[in-house]
Amino acid sequence: MTTALLSVRRLRVYYHLNGAWPWSKGNAVKAVDGVDFDLQAGQTLGIAGESGCGKSTLARALMGLQRVTSGNIQLADKELTQLTRGGWQTLRRQVQMVFQDPLASLNPRMTVGESIAEPLVNLAPELSRAQRQRQAVEMLEKVGLSNHHVLRYPHELSGGQCQRIGIARALVVKPSILICDEPVSALDASVQAQIINLLKDLQADMRLAIIFIAHNLSIVRQVSHRVLIMYLGKIMEQATREALFERPGHPYTRALLSAIPIPEIDSVHAHKRVILRGDPPSPASPPSGCVFRSRCPWVAELCAQEVPTPRHLELNQTAACHFAGELDEMSVGSTQELA
């Protein structure tokens, strides 16, 4: 078995809230609650789920920007949760991030060339100014822009061009892992396709490992080798792309897939609409047992009593549901056939 480039085990990120009164006990928001996954070199892990499920908090924890409550993050032979700020500085070249808003992620007072070269000032101090400028131009061309853009400012460029610059800025230090937090959600559909194809080409060229966070499962399907579905800080399902889209094992995964337009899916579950009841509960007071039970069409008494442990459905597919693998035989009151 290939050794994982990044290995995450039992990762937890809790935010503690003060009580209403000085003497009252506060609650803890479990933003990330016991997450496990492995990321191989040259592969893409897609992370999907509704807003507030913990995707961005997980990304910040992996970047060392968010304090971890407990758990382990292993990058090659380094344990990241124990690193000091100085220790993270030496590893910062290994993990870089692309943000959701391409324009807001760039300094409006810096030219394109200065923005791309800036990470090299801190992370590659051995390079001369001329070497940094040369690498910035090379990376600019690699993301599909020309050296004519070097002296331009972010406000003079389109959203797609700014996102290409953000990608160039992240990759100029040659990281082994690129974390993309909703990198195409602010772009037009045609530009989204261009950025996705660019990321695929760069991954093949640089053997990048990518963590791709998105709401749109159609996009996740295009870019990912494995997919992780989150809800209220927990992993609901984790599987290869093919298994998850063709044979989803968790009710929440089925609900997300049923919301995709039918031409996008060739799964048998594309022909059923799974209607979720109500809104996600507050992460400060999640339901007992299974956190998804308050909205699940397949809910049973057992779901309120016990926290489900991940069940292995087949090779490399797990679902945290008491009835994973048995859903097709169970009655569903909120499921209806699409016309």
Q: Explain this structure to me?
A:
It is built from ten helices and 14 strands. Mean pLDDT is 89; it is low at 333-339. The protein has an eight-stranded mixed sheet, sandwiched between helices. A four-stranded antiparallel sheet has the order 2-1-4-5, with helices on one face. A two-stranded antiparallel ribbon has the order 11-14. 29% of the residues lie in helices and 23% in strands. β7 (177-181), α6 and β8 (209-214) form a beta-alpha-beta unit. α3 (112-123) crosses α4 and α3 (112-123) packs parallel to α5. The relative contact order is 0.13. The protein is globular and about 65 Å long. It has a domain at 241-339. It has 339 residues and is α/β, with parallel strands linked by helices.
Structure summarized in a few sentences:
The chain is an alpha/beta fold. Helix content is 29%, strand content 23%. A hairpin with a 2-residue loop joins strand 4 and strand 5.
Give keywords.
8-stranded mixed beta sheet, 339 residues, 4-stranded antiparallel beta sheet, 10 helices, disordered C terminus, alpha/beta
